[in-house]
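INFO batch 0412 | record 1 of 1 | parsing
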Amino acid sequence: MQQDPYRPTQSVDPIDQSDTALMFMSGGGEMGALMRAHDWSTSPLGHPRAWPQALRTVVELMLNSKFPMFVAWGPALGFLYNDSYRDVLGDKHPHALGARFCDVWAEIWHDLSPLAERALRGEATYADRLHLLMNRHGYDESTWFTFSYSPVRDETGAIAGVYCACVEVTEQVLAERYRNEELERFRALFEQAPGIMAVLRGPDHVFELTNQSYLQLIGGRQLVGKRARDALPEVTGQGFFELLDRVYQSGEPFVGHALPLRLQRESGGPLEERFIDFVYQPIRDAGGAVSGIFVEGSDVTARKQIEDELRAANRQKDQFLAMLAHELRNPLAPIMTAAQLLRLGRQDAKSVANASEIIVRQASHMTDLVNDLLDVSRVTRGLVALEKEELDLNVIVSAAVEQVRPLVDARRHALTLQLSGQPAHVIGDRTRLIQVISNILNNAAKYTAPGGSILLAVTVDETRVFITVRDNGVGIAPEVLPYIFDLFTQAERTPDRSQGGLGIGLALVKSLIALHSGSVHAGSAGLGQGSEFSLCLPRVAAPAPDNSPGGRRAAAQDAGHLRVMVVDDNVDAAQMLAALLEVQGHALSVEYDGQGALERARRERPDVLLLDIGLPDMDGYELARRLRAQPENAHATLVALTGYGQRQDREEAQQAGFDHYLVKPADLGEVSEVLARAKAAR
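INFO prediction complete | emitting tokens
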């Protein structure tokens, strides 16, 4: 067994049991043995045989105690300590025995000396958890001690030393500090948590803790220390306090999902409705009884609004699909009936003409529906490219009136047109602006009872041009007015939906006007009070030379005779278009594939070629490139006639050599205008 270096061996002169002067060191443990074997010749205390009785008494008491103790005696405060104090000294043991107090603890003497001096003056001192930066293991370390310094008197009654009983509390202090740091960390997490949190205590639900999110929810009021019913009086009657009572009494948690909560978030302000997900979780004490409630949750108002909007959008989608089915079936029914009558072949010329007119009219209506759908799709996806030029809105308005005139006349409306009397120039797309104005005029005509009145006015100021359409029709309900420009929004209609439409026209108007850097507004005094729509566009100061399509359109009135080739693999479509152009006096030829068109074009050298893109042997782009490569047709006018209308399709057509791009079904007026330009360029 290894020998303790501080335990005296048999070679050390043991205390003589007959030496009564040193009997006070007997039974003193290892430190008593060390004192008996110690060389006291260099110690300011001298040999123990010469120690005064007061010191002997203190040393005997100290050596037989299991509590860490030391005594510093005499003018030099010689240092004596017991076994329990050795761990406090660390590497300073055993050299500290008999040394001066100030030398033993030199690194902390500035902390200890004031306390020692007070004890030497007769005043007992006490330090609780005093922080001391000790160097007892070869390095500085933070320690904490609880101790007292007491004066020790000699036989004469004079204070001769300082007695100390101490305990090191470093581990307890560090453990408490760690616990406090953990608590502070958890408190910070609690405070910074994105969800609402609160702790309520007792049957009256007194707020003990709340986090920042909870305070933001309720408007930043002071809650801690207040009963819930007193802190949030406006919540009374909404069921939340009753839920707290039930959870406290039953001990069963409660979970709520998107429940409405009306709060007065500003002093004197109105009640504001929020929606919250939350849990009321009972808190139990050591005995298992409910002592409080932990509240945790989140403000889901934004999510609830999005969900409501999605549900509303889904309902609008379903309503739109139902409307679309209805609107498409309506024209299909007379088309099918007229077609069946024509198929029988038993009608006279008048009946045939009537059936044909019905088919044309209803097909035109279906085309308008499909075009509206395509338009709104392209606009909402940002695929519309405006062909902007300088225009006079007085002219545009007049063109829009001409488009809507048949409906206005059919319903016997009195239409008053008030132009500005001065130039009302804007930068815009002529076709799109006519579409916008005619859409609003068309609505005014449809939703005004027969024999009503409609006012269309153009006014200007220095920077803006205004177009106002006012009618005395059915009006707009107040609850519908804020959403009148939303996609698929319509007011209530009669079951037969005699007015028709898909509810996308005004959404398209708003989008197109926005593309022109303008705005549109709707107003109505209510149902039966008529409606007013106002358009506003930026005005340009001076008109540019008239090179607009409107100015060029006059040339279409006298297009002259041209050699025209129609190339389309749809036999019916090709023949019908050729028949229409022949009626106008043009010389027509028809081909149904690309190779035939190339061979015939080389022979006939047509002035204009109307080419379908989707041909069976080669697409229209390849056909256009090959036609351009033929010297006979290098300068012919090439017109793409296709069902594809995306921007990339137009760009590919331009790269292939097309001069014009028309989307099926092409308007006869557009075709005539293209032919007129070709005639003028000849």
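INFO post-check: The chain has a mean pLDDT of 84.
INFO record closed
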